[in-house]
Queue: 2 jobs
Job 1
Amino acid sequence: MAAEPLTSPKIVGKARPRVDGPLKVTGRAMYSSDHHFPGMLYAVPVSATIANGKIEKIDTATAEKMPGVRAIYHQGNIGKLFRVSVSFGDLSMIDETRPPFEDDVIRYYGQYVALAVADTFEQAGAAADAVKVTYRREEPNVERELGVERLAGVRKKGGSKPEHLESPKVQSERGDPEPAFEKAAVTLDATYLLPAETHNPIELHATVAVWDGTGFTLYDTTQAVVNARNVLAQMLGVPKENMRVISKFLGSGFGGKLWPWTHCALAAAAARQLNLPVKLVINRRSMFQCVGHRPLIQQRVRLSATQEGKLTSLRHEYVNHTSMLDDYEESCGEGTPHMYSVPNLRVTSALARRNVGTPTSMRGPGAVPGLYATESAMNELADLLKMDPVQLRLANEPEIDEGTKLPFSSRHLRECLTTGAEKFGWARRTPAVGSMKQDGLTLGWGMASCTWIAKRFGCTARVELRDDGTAAVSTATQDIGTGTYTVLAQITAEKLQIPVEKIEVILGDSNLPEGPVSGGSMATASVIPAVMAAAGKAAESLLGVAAKAPGSPFAGSKPDGLAFQDGKVQAKGGGEGVPFGEILKKAKMRGVSGQGSSDGNFLDPKPQFSSHSFGAHFVEVTWQPETVRLRINRVLTVIDAGRIVNPLAGRNQIEGAVVMGVGMTLFEQTQYEHGTGAPINSNLADYIMAVNADVPKLDVIFLDYPDLHLNEFGARGIGEIGLAGISAAITSAIHHATGFRARKLPVTIEDLLGAPAQA
Amino acid sequence: MRMKSFAFIRPPDSAVAIAAQAESPTAQQGASVRFLAGGTTLVDLMKLNVEGPDKVVDINRLPLDQIESLPDGCLKIGATVRNSALANHPAVLRDYPVLSQAILQGASAQLRNRATTAGNLLQRTRCIYFRDTAMPCNKREPGTGCAAIHGHNRNLAILGTSEHCIANNPSDMCVAMAALEAVIHVTGPKGVRAIPFAEFHLLPGETPHQETVIQPGDLITHVTLPPPVPGNKSLYLKLRDRASYEFALASAAVVLTVAGGRITRARVAMGGIGVKPWRTREVEAALEEQPATETTYQRAAEMAVQGARPQSENAFKIELAKRCLIHALKLAAQPA
């Protein structure tokens, strides 16, 4: 059972329906807020109705006397909540670092100022409404203009410090972009604005907290049970052995549920004080206020090229808003240094502080907003050059990662572009605006490339072989709806060569061996080596049992004279194989298990390779100027993400991301109101997202080149890359149809009303 | 989201229902007794604490859920007929397609299965400030001010507004009923009355909390549609950001009779842009006895938005509404 690369797997790589599908469609899957306990109480937070200022007084007298009310918590009585030693390496990540109720300062609209706990949800809600809070209000700063132009003078050495911006950084630098830009034949200088966006998984954030006198069990909507345990143990001041976090099923998270938010600690603190289980489900409005968002981002891209379309310089400068206390950096330049060949480059970033809740990762953080800007700039440059945008990209394909000077572990962007162009019919595109028609509508065609990092987190997994012929695999990762249960069953079945139906997958519990966060599109790549090792060790243990146990048909053999093949033990010389369940039964054992671990390489200071996934989107929009009606008609996406473990689940990830991209490009924006500072459209009717009727015809093609530098199967992640680049592809199609050049998202009816009435 | 406690009654007949509601000092915002039909507006607003009745009177078991053709050619639609039943009724599909289309472009299938005819006549605005008790709103709490005028008003009205309120009426069904000249039949403590559609909704003026002519104890029993006009063509065009499940930014219901290239009869109502379903005789007069041409439609569209008072975010609705009406008229005038 050596850990050699498996280049022709039998179960991995095959489309399989979700192993947890039946549980979900019959309602038996227990999501966090489905958990109920005898005597359980309900908690409802009181949210600040100012975005900047101080609490002068909290009057809880009326609320405390209301029926069913057990307690009203606030700064004065919540008890000690501790700050966390934030560390990615130790998996102790939290974005809003201030524990709830720590001081009397309000820094964003909706910040929790009190918590009502009562026998029923309705009683807790009524009590929360009855808490009277008096504020000293100050003018909030939710200004949309971030001042990206002030980054122009920032250099690695000897640069200037931009005013009103914080943490200016040079993220990457090579050559000398200024003179290259000055003397270039063709140049582009464009600034792009992305609004704040709210994750809005349909499952609201929820914590059900149970205190047993010494420790906590939290049923929490988290994408990372190990991280949640580590953070909340620190915040509540208990040893991490006394904190158990469970997240069996998640109604998605999109990054918003990666790290704990303030309500988690509130639920736990209330449960401990009252010595009863407490359920806290936040409402949709709080989802827009207190649990992160993708920040407002302003990006300036300056490109220069030769007349033939060879890039000579690239500058990418970006500023994102962050909250008053926390430095959330949206790393928009993550993909910029390696995407294209360009000798002169600088990527610069900074933060702008606003009265908003702390931002957090949203599906494809950094790369998704970053590629919207840089890929849009590439499309604009192509138009300036009168060059096909696919050709422009092919002409600037790099040999190595020019940012790190490392070879790529596996890069097939060229093939993504050419395959996509061929399948889409790109050769039929006529470049003039409004020149393509179909069924009385104007067509617009656009495209863009995409990339996403491919790394691994550390993982430990356990595999158990049982006497009933089944096997169990367990690790403290979780399935956030992407198919992790299914993928783990496939990997384990592949290694043991037994049917997927015989594998039980146990996830979502911090008491299991430590597994990865469901983030960064890295869970699958991370679990593979650990599960392979664990399954190998379980099989080794079994061979030991087969050789020694008195009842075993192989008793007296040497373990290394036996082999584990297709779920059976057999002598290496040949002969009849015996199923492992039979061996265990004869040995009177319930099971044998093995544990395997693998290190992560996410924080590897000296990587050997530049590892990324790549892809290309091709988009068709239809445009009817008479009614200002723009619809996305079809999208074809080609993805190079290593070997796809489950093409069915994989396709679902890309399709879902593309639909999210439709929303990002045309609809979604969280609007902070001047004056109040409130995210004003904080509900699902006023925050417009794509619905089923907006879903275009979707095609997904996987190139399926295994990236064996990453793991045995060569599988990279696919959860996020589908959202990267899609907005630039859609906006270029919009430009092709309407002549409107979108440098801010979303592209609205107001924008398109200004387009020529007749193309 | 939470609700305060309330009494819940199921009256055996209309008289008991009417008597129960008549105990409320008002049938408008702040009513202490509310009829419950589909509940898609009322329960929603109760959860938001925008509505807080002491008593809820369930009228779903009253015999008000039938659609019937009357001897005079009118179509009678019961108050509790569900939106989905109305939209898919053969007589509506045949004689009043504009109504079917308007309903089916509103809300979602699940909501249409619950929402009722009378409930939709009384649908409340989707103005964010009306729905958020932390914000001032003259419609919800008279005298607190209008936060929308200097706030988030992209979706709100450009026609019929006052300095006290710019909330729009979100109903699609009502726009079609306005164009069809429906009549609303009410039974109240003093007997029955028939209210022409155009007189049912009120302008906000200084009393935006008064939305309709409904008085305490008034129970909407049914709506009648006049007999279909022979040879007419009707349709509903709704413009919005996404393809489904969104309130109109602008919509048009048109009922047109064209003979020999001339428009002989026109009924036009617009949605998304007015404080109430917006119908003016001037627009119809600009169309009637005119050639069915682009020029005619243009002139009618200009008239339709005359007097529009845009706010900081919704000036685009003027142009959008014009394009909406022109395109709807063009489609309706096309030979079949």
Job 2
Amino acid sequence: MSEAQIECRDLWKIYGKRSDEAMKAVLTEGLSKDEVRDRFGCVLGVRNASFSVSKGEIFCIMGLSGSGKSTLVRHVNRLIEPTSGEIHVAGRRVDTMAEDALRQLRAETIGMVFQHMALWPHRTLGENVGFGLEVRGVALPERRKSAEAALAAMELSGWIDHYPDQLSGGMQQRVGLARALAADPEILLMDEPFSALDPLIRRQLQDQFLNLSTHMDKTTLFITHDLDEAIRMGDHIAIMNDGEIVQIGTPEEIVTNPVDDYVADFVKGISRVSLVRAETIMEPMNGRAHTPKHVRTDAELGEIIDNFMDDQSPVTVVDPEKAPVGLITIKAALTALRG
Amino acid sequence: MDLWNIFDTEWIPVGTWVESALQWVVVNFRFIFQAIKVPFDLVLTALEDGLTQAPDLLVLAIIILIAWQAGGRKLGLIAAACMTAIGLMGAWEESMTTLSIVLTCVVFCSLIGIPLGVIAAKRDRFWMVLQPLLDLMQTIPSFVYLVPIVMLFSIGNVSGVIVTFIYALPPVVRLTNLGIRQVRPDMVEAARAFGASNRQTLYKVELPLAMPTIMAGVNQTIMMALSMVVVSSMISVTGLGQMVLRGIGRLDMGLATVGGLGIVFLAIVIDRVSQSFGTSSRARNHQKWYETGPVGAVRTLVRK
């Protein structure tokens, strides 16, 4: 795996006037969220979160509202100050960074997309998209050029002199994306970018974004409350509950191996057909003869089930060198399907 | 001493204290107050000279053009009607004096009130201190501070502007504070997320978005300033207010009516024009101001 582009270590956020006292008490006594609230009048936003995101991947943070996911992501560009912990972005330490360097980092290295678009209604699309360059003092012609390019990438050419309220919701969020991409940042923070959109548009935008991100090699931190979306988009998923990261893993790991009841509850309704792979559910050969039907170790559950359509005898799993490494019975396949 | 009627004696001589304190301030610090007068005097004199010495019809034409630009042809017609009526009633000179006093007051209220409102929106503690002060400025009867103002600043139009300033300042501070606080938090957060400093966020996002509310405050300030016109004429401020006051003094109903009507017409014009400045270009289908009104007409003519 390549170097970590975003890394948070032991991150805590406690809101309130007595957050420092509360922090100490939490560390020494291990208080729960409710105890912190009752004893110090403080709200525990993020509890001991550590994660790292490799260059080029999409890392989803998934959780219900109030689970602290939006708070967590705002630590990466320090829109929220951590109470304790370390944040590293693109090889630089963010939590101790000086104000001016921080502003430069926000303008040049990190692009952000917001749930309710947060486009400025008094500015044209061009002025919205060019804002990051504008505050860095880039001259107007150059700003306009990058704004044009960013809008074109989002299929919004020709709208540059219009205003946000003249656009539909889906188009507005494409402007939000264009604004985040205008300065060509290495990192994208997306805070529930597609949640406010209707399902069809959401799907379109997800596809468009996936397509873009494979071309552009950006590192993305993607917040969502929708596990389907997290699985569709994410290379890795972190599940948050009550300010704490309860599990980090690939979509397959999360679905097949939920760490506790909370996660298990989430993944219950998720279709495993394209998530579970042969190597996860195969049994060892243990000297059994291999059958004529075979699939590769990375075959998806759907393909394995296809093999049982006419003939219900076990399927052999073979590695890339065609050597048999395991067997899958129809029972194992069906169990995996049910979850 | 009669215990049953202890209040016959003045135990706390507030009046005497205030008087001697004021005397002390007048004797020792009058120069400070005279210095404060200077900027008010400069702006007022410039405006008054301009408005009264220029030909009446030129001033009328400029007012109509400004009204047309701000609020369209209809407002232009309203302004034309009101201002012509004032002129025909013979109150033109006086109304120009009153207009310059009101405008001077608005300039200073905005210059001081908008920054105060911005600071108040950013700092809760400052707002907590400021709020009772503003309440005091608005509720204390203006007659009460007429006397000290005269003693510190002497009489005349400039003192009138200062009295009016005290009375008219609160709305613009209040509504600026409100407007800035009401800007959607994610708009501000987005600005910060793209690297804007506090100052850039204020000028590029918060102030433009709060502008309609701030302009409502400026409008209120103008209205308050107009309502002080008659009161301030008691410290020999000239203009429409003086017509009314003189009318009352001499039981000259005609003079008082002319002055009163003049104030009403002037109020209508100033109110409508300042309200129109407040509507954002969003509410006007994103037409820039220079694309409409007389300037827009000239621009299209020139292009042809």
